[in-house]
Amino acid sequence: MNNDIEKTLYSAEEIKAAAHRLGMQLTEDYRDKRPILISVLKGAILWTVDVMKEMDIMAEVDFIDVSSYHGGLASTGEIQLIHDLSADVAGRNVIIMEDIIDTGRTLKFLIDLLNERHAKDIKVCTLLDKPEGRVVEAKADYVGFQLPKEFVVGYGLDYKEFYRNLPYVGVLKPEVYENDN
């Protein structure tokens, strides 16, 4: 797998430091609020776990699985709800835990869904924010790193379900995917 990576953008150590920084900030911002963290599967699971470990507050966690990439390089624009939440978010402080915000479509879909379900407050904590990719308005409240316009894998992010287990975020070599377009 490592041979398929052109360059490392964010090392395991840098990611750990970002998780610590944001975990401490969330601790301050949500003290005595008992938020529910909603981890967006599959990509955000590692980020969610690492940030949660840095939080010193009572917090619940739940999972939702939505997809707009369907294994490819770019968002299809069509959001599919694959696995819904088990918790009721009505009246709750919600923190959406994302791996990457690119086009913004998935995030907008999630925020609209949670608003329909009467969440009290919705904030977003993302590992990566790629503003250049936006096609709809979407904003993260807590950001690990600003991402340049690159196709990245690792630390939960995948290409065709692979590379998620890399401990860092790296740019995938174009020859790995260029014949798939």
Automatic annotation (TrEMBL):
Pfam annotation, one family: Pribosyltran
Chief subcellular location: cytoplasm
Listed InterPro entries: HGPRT, Hxn_phspho_trans, PRTase-like, PRTase_dom
Domain of life: Bacteria
Coiled-coil stretches noted in the UniProt entry, renumbered to this chain: none
CDD domains: PRTases_typeI
Keyword terms of this UniProt record: Cytoplasm, Glycosyltransferase, Magnesium, Metal-binding, Nucleotide-binding, Purine salvage, Transferase
GO molecular function, one term: guanine phosphoribosyltransferase activity
Keyword Metal-binding: yes
Cofactor(s) the record lists: Mg(2+)
Catalysed transformations (reactions): GMP + diphosphate = guanine + 5-phospho-alpha-D-ribose 1-diphosphate; IMP + diphosphate = hypoxanthine + 5-phospho-alpha-D-ribose 1-diphosphate
Compartment(s): Cytoplasm
Biological process, per Gene Ontology: GMP salvage; guanine salvage; hypoxanthine metabolic process; IMP salvage; purine ribonucleoside salvage
GO CC terms in record: cytosol
Residue ranges of every copy of the Phosphoribosyltransferase domain listed in the record: 8-160
Function: Purine salvage pathway enzyme that catalyzes the transfer of the ribosyl-5-phosphate group from 5-phospho-alpha-D-ribose 1-diphosphate (PRPP) to the N9 position of the 6-oxopurines hypoxanthine and guanine to form the corresponding ribonucleotides IMP (inosine 5'-monophosphate) and GMP (guanosine 5'-monophosphate), with the release of PPi.
Family stated for the protein in its record: Belongs to the purine/pyrimidine phosphoribosyltransferase family.
Name used for this protein in its record: Hypoxanthine phosphoribosyltransferase
Record lineage: Bacteria, Bacillati, Bacillota, Bacilli, Lactobacillales
Gene name for this UniProt entry: hpt
